Amino acid sequence: MATQEIEKRGETGNNVEVERDSVHKEIAIVKMNRATGNKLSTDFMTELNTTLEKLENDDSCRGIILTSAIAGIFSLGLDGTEMYQKSLESTSAFWRSLQDFWMRLYGSKLATVAAINGHSPATGCQMAMSCDYRVMSEGPFGIGLPEVTVGLVAPFWFQEVMVKTCGERQTEMAVGLGTMFTPEEALKIGLVDEVVRPGDLISKAREQLLKWLKNPDRPRAMTKDMRRGPLLEKLRAQQEEDIATFNEYIHEKSVQESFGMSLESRKK
Predict the structure, then answer these.
(1) For the domain 3-267, what is the CATH code?
(2) Where are the transmembrane segments (predicted)?
(3) How far apart are CA 58 and CA 28, in angstroms?
(4) pLDDT tens across 28-61, in order?
(5) Domain-by-domain residue ranges, the chain?
């Protein structure tokens, strides 16, 4: 579909752009556009969560394509500055915003397709896995959960989503080693569903989304909830405990020192 067939509707925030397909108006294309490589800060995740909530409450919207406006980058994961030398209150709000955004995306009643246009480590990978379908662009890109390589631990809900996506053994090896997969490797293990040429990414994502939208919304959403509801309920029940576990770990002196060195290295 030609670029001019995408209709801008002014649904644009500071870091999130929303476009409507002029032919298939029930489709919204949500583009992350934060200058830091779409690193997820508290404010950015809150904006993403609010954007999804508005689209869910818009009867004219039935499905979304989640992608990035930044060439070669889907999302570089969490914003490390939100976890370094911050107060307990600040890191609690940060982690809660991540939980809330993920629960919104993973449990959305909308049909969701990730159009992964580039690098997608850590939470970038988690966002993609949380969509109903994943299309990734060919190229020198990586996707995976490499938290252990930077001294972090992927929370249980990250790991359980990967188990549901790739299987127990693939997940055990991937998160234990912090493996980043090429698009072709990700396709082979089921981490993504399709790998396409960069110029075909959005059209292929749209093509897949329309397949999901052939089914009536309510039974499709109910079926999705039957598959995903138990994990969502597990996190809701353990949300405060999960925040406490994160805070206990992230504020350890050795972890903060490691974080400081990592952030300094990235600056250089």
Answers:
(1) 3.90.226.10
(2) none
(3) 11
(4) 999 999 999 999 999 999 999 999 999 999 999 9
(5) 3-267
